[in-house]
Amino acid sequence: MTRRFLIHVPEDDVRHWFEVGATGRVVRQISFRGHASLPVVAVEAAELAMARQTCGDWGVRLYEVVYGVPAREPVVEPPDARPVDRREFDLAWGRARSHRQCEVRHDSGPLPVGTRLTGTFTRSPWGPGVTGVFVDVGLPALGFVDAAVLLEAGCRWPEDGTRAQFEVVDLRVGGRSHPQVRLRPTAIPPPAEPWPRPGPS
User: Fold this and answer.
1) Which of 5, 51, 54, 177 registers the highest number of CB atoms within 10 A of its CB?
2) What is the largest CA-CA distance in the chain?
3) Residue 70 domain-assigned?
4) How many domains does the chain have?
5) Under-70 pLDDT residues of the chain
6) Cα 2 from Cα 67, distance rounded (Å)
């Protein structure tokens, strides 16, 4: 049986929301800090396990940059915990996840936003001009450049194997997909001109 409850920790000014499965293990955790209820944690255990499976400890650190660091198990439900129903928990979960994904600048951890990388464009499974193109940046996570970046610049679609320099603009982890590093090229060639090659490092 799944249980959901809220614990207030006055000394830290934090309210922890826990969803606990039948075995007593935490399935999801949300934590809000302070009077403004700032979301500092929105972690799903299965997602965290997937990040570890696909990218090792590096993936865990990346996940925790985006969604915060959860309480270490086991979590014991204290007598003064407040029960929370499914709807209330899900509403709080949606708010916390949206904030951690969209409102927090992920400028810490193993790959801060703004990091410059050299990478190689790889074959787009959707074909030129559609969705975007993957980039091999030599990391456990996939690099990805959104098609809008290239189409708005009016440049040629990069050929498979083209090397360029990139800047990290966002991190996408969670769900059941492989962690992804969103990138933009630091320089885009004018139409009909070749892509820039990185200079010597």
Assistant:
1) 51
2) 69
3) yes
4) 2
5) 197-201
6) 22
